[in-house]
Amino acid sequence: MTEPKYKRILLKLSGEALMGGDAYGINRQTIAEIVAEIKAVVDLGVQVGVVIGGGNIFRGLAHASNGMDRAQADYMGMLATVMNGLALQDAMRAAGIVSRVQSALNIEQVVEPYIRGKAIRYLEQGRTVIFAAGTGNPFFTTDTAAALRGAEIGAEIVLKATKVDGIYSADPKKFADAVRYDRISFDDAIAQNLAVMDATAFALCRDQRLPINVFSIYKPGALMRVVLGENEGTLVVC
Ligand code: UDP
């Protein structure tokens, strides 16, 4: 039987990943495809925590730059991640994955609050845990929530699912000679000013020696290859 390299992972799924080709919101076909990729690794016995973003619905910073109070806008952004979390749970249920949504903001009629010990227990029971509402604090991002929850639950790696298949030396859309790194150190990524995750998230992973694998969620089988320890996307290590 195929042996996964990691027993427990933290997957960061951006809100934008759920849009597929749409301009806004949640594309049901896309979310079903993403869930099928997740199911394959769950079926392998890997414990999966997911931090879900909200950028497909509401991004605090964008509204703050239009004059809205930043903290207020960020709370709206966090609530958007809860909506995505519920949509993801629903798609998981349809695919036969048992999951729980935990929220960093208390809205107990809708989802249970984030309780670290309970989340770990769920993972041990083979349930997938969806972490919603980011860190629960304005001025942060769900990337930082991914680093934080990853460290808290003892994940062996943070998998950052994006639309691009890794980290490049320059923007591959603008520079034809941009090269994709298979592996890069935290220090080199910082020195080269490569946009991997936001700086807070990145610093937290580096300090906790928590590796990050950046890969494309739209590439079939990529998540599985990362989990099997194959060369997929870019691995950021100490
Ligand atoms: N957000 C926040 N604190 C957090 C996480 C998220 O205030 O700990 C807000 C912030 O406004 C952000 C929005 O929620 O723009 C959606 O999260 P994010 O932009 O990280 O989502 P993604 O880009 O991954 O879809």
UniProtKB/TrEMBL annotation:
Location of the protein in the cell: Cytoplasm
Domain Aspartate/glutamate/uridylate kinase: 7-215
GO CC entries: cytosol
Pfam families named among the record's database cross-references: AA_kinase
Entry keyword Repeat: no
Keyword Nucleotide-binding: yes
One annotated GO molecular function: UMP kinase activity
EC identifiers of the protein: 2.7.4.22
Record pathway: Pyrimidine metabolism; CTP biosynthesis via de novo pathway; UDP from UMP (UMPK route): step 1/1
Similarity remark: Belongs to the UMP kinase family.
The protein, known as: Uridylate kinase
